[in-house]
Amino acid sequence: MRRVKGSSLIRNLRLSESLKKNQLWNGIISITLLEGKNVSGGSMTEMFVLLKLGDQRYKSKTLCKSANPQWQEQFDFHYFSDRMGILDIEVWGKDSKKHEERLGTCKVDIAALPLKQANCLELPLESCLGALLLLITLTPCAGVSVSDLCICPLADPSERKQIFQRYCLQNSLKDMKDVGFLQVKVLKAVDLLAADFSGKSDPFCLLELGNDRLQTHTIYKNLNPEWNKVFTFPIKDIHDVLEVTVFDEDGDKPPDFLGKVAIPLLSKSSAVW
User: Fold this and answer.
1) Which residues span the domain enclosing 253?
2) Does residue 4 register a pLDDT over 50?
3) What CA–CA distances, in Å, run from 230 to 56, 65, 165, 233?
């Protein structure tokens, strides 16, 4: 029995480390879908665009068919310096019967783009006539982290001093996109609902701020889980709302909802978020 418990613990630790690595992005890839140029829509009456980078996906708004559709939409992807990958872009059309058809595609090698500058790209479409005009900016950012409670990043006085200096009044105009950051300590949950037939749950906690998501590891067969984790988010909009949701892990099935709380950032008054 001890061997089973030990191997299970090692497996859970490995899963936890893998989850942690997949959440720690190094910056933001800001993509502005500006417009299409001479796009051939055929018999389609409407058009939209899908953008995919790894498991991150966005869909543009749907516009009436036009050779030069004006989307003017911005999407933020997470930037991983060790696995940038290829941005896949697809243009789709809809006809009057709501049938969807892929009209054309194009790709962008994100790793080949320079950092910290706006890259204006005109991308010819494959499989159909026309091109897409995009603006892509890769901005590295510090502060995103997942750590144990015992090594909380703000526990070090010298680090707190550096943070106060970084966001003091005299430095407030140096980087208009660097609004600040939010640190959340996820300690525990008490008296959760039992989602399994055994009378227990397999809870994990999901934190969402804008388009950013971080989550804890799963604690199996427990209604009073203790995660004791510290999460740090970059703040892009002071009007965002932090949403904290507890789910029950259910294998390959979608997780079951156990509870949720929403906290507007403006409801907090701390100088270091």
Assistant:
1) 2-26+142-267
2) no
3) 24, 47, 22, 10
